[in-house]
Amino acid sequence: MDFTKKMLRDDALSDKVIVVTGGGSGLGKAMTRYFMELGAKVAITSRDLEKLQKTAAELEEETGGVCLPLQCDVRFYDQVESMLAETLKKFGKVDVLLNNAAGNFIAPTERLSANAFDTIIDIVLKGSKNCTLAFGKHWIDSKQESSTILNIVTTYAWTGSAYVVPSATAKAGVLAMTRSLAVEWAKYGIRSNAIAPGPFPTKGAWDRLLPGDLAEKFDMAKKVPLKRVGDHQELANLAAYLVSDFSAYINGEVVTIDGGEWLKGAGQFNLLEAIPEEMWDQLEAMIKAKKNK
Ligand code: HXC
Ligand code: NAP
Fold it and tell me: What value does the mean pLDDT take over residues 206-210?
C-alpha cells in the first residue's frame, strides 16, 4: 500500500488563503506543502523567522506556490493581530486558520515549575484561543461568507495522559473550544473541526517525547494495531479535505488518525491479543464445558 499518495484533485484549494501556525517544521510544514500543491496561498507562522523563511523558500521552489513567512508568538494577542493584518495585507483575505503550533515535553508533573506548566498551556490553549478569537472577530466583522478553523489536538485530549499533563490539559481545552464554536459560530459561516493524530514521527515531538534511546525502547509502532506510525502525507490528505469545500457539512468533528492506537489502550480485553491462535480451541472447549453447570 502506498501511504504517500495524494488524495485531492490538483486545484482543490486554489481559491483558499490558509494560515498555518507552527508551519515551519514537522506536521505543519507537511500540511503546508500539500495545501500549496493544491493551489492554496499559505502564511506560515512561528517564533523563528529564519526557519520560516527557509521553509517558505523551499516549499515555493518545490511546489511553485506562494508561501508567506510571518514571525508570531501565539502566546501574545498583539502579535496574533499583527500576523492577521500582515496576511490580509498580502493576500486580501484569509479563509482558514490551522491551529497547529504546540509545545510539549515529558516530565513527572510534580517536577514541573509553575512556569513550565504555564508555558505549555500558554502555547497550546492560550495560543489557539488567541488565534481563534482574532480570526473569528475578523470573519464576523467582515461578514465573510465561509471560513474554517482546524485545530490539531491529540488522542489524549479526551483520555488524559500521565507525564504530559500540561499538554493533555491544554489539548482538552482546545477540543472543548472546537466543539463549542462549531455551534456558536456556525451562523457566521465558520466551521470548526479538529484532527487527533496518533504517532507521526517529527523532530520536534520525538526530541521532547522520546529523548535519547527512548525511541528504541518504546517503539511507538508497536502500540498501534496497524503496527506502523503515520506518514505525513496521510495527515496532510485529511487536513486538506477538512479545510476544503468538500467537507462543507462537517462541523464540530474531531477526526482521529492513529491506526487504532488509543482504542488499543482502552478496551478491557484487548490484552487477549497475547493469546496464541492455537489456544482458542482449548479455551472455547473450557467455556462450553461450564454450560449448565
Ligand atoms: C521540566 C522543563 C522542561 C523539561 C522546559 N522546562 N523543558 N521542565 N522538564 N523537559 C521548563 C523550563 O525550566 C522553564 O521553567 C519552562 O519550562 C519554560 O522553558 P523555556 O525553555 O524557557 O521555554 P521556551 O523557550 O518558551 O520553550 C518552550 C518549550 C520547548 C515547550 C519548553 O520545548 C519548545 O520550544 N517547544 C516547541 C516545539 C514542541 O514542543 N514540539 C512538540 C510538539 S509534540 P522555569 O521554571 O525553569 O522557568 C506534541 C505531540 C503529542 O504536542 C503527541 C505525540 C504522540
Ligand atoms: P513541531 O515540529 O515541534 O511543531 C510545533 C510547532 O509549533 C513548531 O513549528 C514551533 O515553531 C511552533 N511553536 C511552538 N511554540 C510556539 C509559539 N509560542 N508561537 C508560535 N509557534 C510556536 O512538532 P509536530 O510534531 O509537527 O507537532 C505539530 C502539531 O501536531 C502539534 O499541535 C502537536 O501537538 C500535534 N501532534 C503531533 C503528533 C506527532 O506524533 N508528531 C501527535 C499528536 C499531535 P517555533 O519553535 O519556530 O516557534
Answer: 94
CATH number of 17-291: 3.40.50.720
Sign of the dihedral through C-alpha 85, 90, 92, 94: negative
Can you tell me the distance from the alpha carbon of 45 to that of 42, in angstroms, rounded to the nearest whole number?
Answer: 10
- What number of other Cβ atoms are within 10 A of residue 57's Cβ? 12
For the chain, domain boundaries: 17-291
C-alpha span between 45 and 56 (Å, rounded)? 10
Q: Is the pLDDT of residue 292 over 70?
A: no
Q: Which three cell numbers stand for residue 1?
A: 500500500
> How many residues are present in the chain?
293
Residues contacting ligand 1 via CB (< 6 Å): 102-105, 107, 111-113, 115-116, 119-120, 154, 167, 199, 204-205, 208-209
Catalytic residues: 156
* Per-residue model confidence as pLDDT tens digits over 142-188: 999 999 999 999 999 999 999 999 999 999 999 999 999 999 999 99
Measured from the alpha carbon of residue 73, the closest ligand is 2
Point out which residues pair with 68 in neighbouring strands: 43
Ligand 1 pocket test target in 52, 120, 208 with most atoms within 8 Å of CB: 208
Closest ligand to 161 CA?
Answer: 1
**What is the atom index within ligand 1 of the atom nearest the CA of 113?**
46
Instruction: Kindly tell me if the per-residue pLDDT of 264 is higher than 90.
Output: yes
Measured distance CA(238)–CA(263) in Å, rounded: 20
Helix (H, G, I), strand (E, B) or coil at 37: helix
Q: Whose CA is nearest to atom 17 of ligand 2?
A: 73
Average pLDDT in the chain: 97
Q: Is the pLDDT of residue 84 over 70?
A: yes
Cβ(218)–Cβ(210) under 8 Å? yes
Give the residue, by CA position, lying nearest to ligand 1 atom 23. Answer: 119
- pTM > 0.85: yes
